[in-house]
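Apologies for my clumsy wording, but could you write out the amino acids of a protein and the tokens describing how it folds?
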Amino acid sequence: MITNNNWIIFNGQTGEVYPVEKFPFEIGTGVGADLKLQDPDLFAVHCSVENGASNGISLQCAAGVSGITVNGQLIQSKSLQSDTDYLILLGGHTLALRGGVGVEEWLTGLDSDRWSVFDSASEQYYGPFPMPAIIENAKEGAFKLDWVVHLDGMGTGARIHQMLDAMKVSVKQALPPPPENSDEQVSGHRTVDPDKGDLTCPVCWLQFDTEDIMHVATHPDLYGDSVLGEDAATRFHTTRFDEHNRALDPKGSPCIEMACPHCRHVLPPEFMDSPARIISIVADSGGGKSYFLAVLSKLLPEILFREMNVVFQDANPMGNAKLSDLRTALFSAREPSEAILARTVMEGEMYARCTRYDREVQMPYPFIYSLSKDGKPERSLVVFYDNSGEHFQAHIDINLQPGAQHVSSAAGIIFLFDPFCSAEFRSMMMESDNPETGEDQSDRHDVILAEMKVRVQKLRNLPSAEKVSTPLAVVVGKSDMWIHALPKPVRTDLISDGQLNLPALTENSALLRAFLMGNAPKVVGNAESFSSNVQYFAASSFGHVPPVVQSADGFKSAPDPTKLKPFQVDAPPLWILSQVTPELVPTKI
């Protein structure tokens, strides 16, 4: 077996050397990182070198990281072979990694000021140069963006555009004259590989690079798109910019909206500026996800600003409109019948119809918010996905219905357990607390958790016995109907002195885990076989037993707007955010 002393990391910017002396060896900006980097675009722990019993030495992205570029490829996880060179792009840093026999000799051949450029078309080498010289040559057009750059002494590298994208270096193009007959022409189609690129569309989940991004025409004569249809504004690849670096459409109008080159949906304004943390909400059909998310979108901004001075705001008002409508419907209702929210179904309004691999599919809308704090440079995007429970049924083909793929890249997962669907929990409720509505009360929680595990392992290419480290919040909902059966009350002092009170959360989690072990042990078993980082919560979106009212679809339980008093709905996402953005949501230990 390869020992940890055989692996060495060389910083291609500074020339510093870091022996990998322990596993996991964590790389990021946090104070506890084994290799600490200064970069606002990186997480506290961005990636780590692992030594797993099942798959040996590997490089793993941290939860919430959409991917890192290794040897020119975007990866989530990569097995590392001894006596092989690896060039890792992390923001403004390039790290050379190698293990095995002779790494000391390999190290003596590296120099942070000696980088070479290779033109594969002419098979011509240029250099060596220090990295700043390569950047300047690329800016001036002397080096093409698809040329390969590598550190002398290494047998691998990355394309210049990948390095510039990682470093967020903008290569400005000169403003060319308008094309002839521009009144009749729209920029031609460009073929974009859906499985390659440093960026991932939050709607269709296909990949692309920065130069592949399309723009949305603003001129009133430019309507019609080959993917979205004749009523959509034209999407195009720009070749012209104005003095404010805004793309110009073929009619010369400035454009500010960008679009995915695959599904053509508009990308959020901060898409390229801040790292995105995905929080996936998973539950069975009718498990209360829509109510939970509607309540959460109201409470989370309030408590974050009031208790921690953190601003949680809408980063994509147009894309978040559907969730805003749900929140308005719930909190502006005058009577229970007006507060009924439609459950999330795969063909419902919470889904976007889009094209993936030439097939039209339904994908859940991303609800995107920004997280920031005055006086701190850190800024993050938080993306919520509300999935239909049908996506996690075993008979649903992940290729035909790929909407649940975001779970594999999530920074955290919130799993809602509906006590109405558990015979053990129903027996604890008084008859008035368990209204008969004719709704399906089949218990499929353990099946959904097991299926979620299988799908994540397939998408991440993990061994079946390997757990993920993704924070998993198991939320036992509708707590007002069963919480009286706990042996003692749950703690409510969840925030203290502007910090999340971790001991209180841990005590509540242990209490609820023991309670679930007595009433729904399969849920505990499936959750803890999926993730090594599980926390248990009690929550209620309403804070009262909802009355049964008649609707167009029959009798349904609905909240009474005059009695709305949500209970600890914000605790699960606060815990997840404290795990992935500790600089913004600190904890009290």
Notes: Residues 173-185 have pLDDT under 50 and may be disordered.
